Amino acid sequence: MSSAMPRQEPYRDRIELLQGTLDLLVLTTLQWGAQHGYAIGLAIRANSRDVLHVETGSLYPALYRLEKQGWIASEWKQSEANQRAKFYRLTAKGKKQLAAEQSRWRRIVDAMAAAMNPEPRESES
Q: Which letter does DSSP use for residue 6 in this model?
């Protein structure tokens, strides 16, 4: 009998984000100030305790989409590493959207919690 540990699959614990969740995460991250794309991805990862990893192939299209909707704006600046980088900031329209999305997300979380822990029902006679 082998005492070897079972092989872990690289994406076994990967959490797929619900549609719209990435937008909420980006808007939430930008509420604390302008950041470049790489820093946004790192902040999401750090703030989620290393659970949520946003791939660049998902992040940059989301940033483009959010900018097109007018929720964020961007400008080219020098990064901390003295490199030219596009910095994104939340707009007034984005702040309103963030508040709406946070409210929607809280309703979803409450509904999921209720569905996962239903209160006992009285039996009908």
A: P
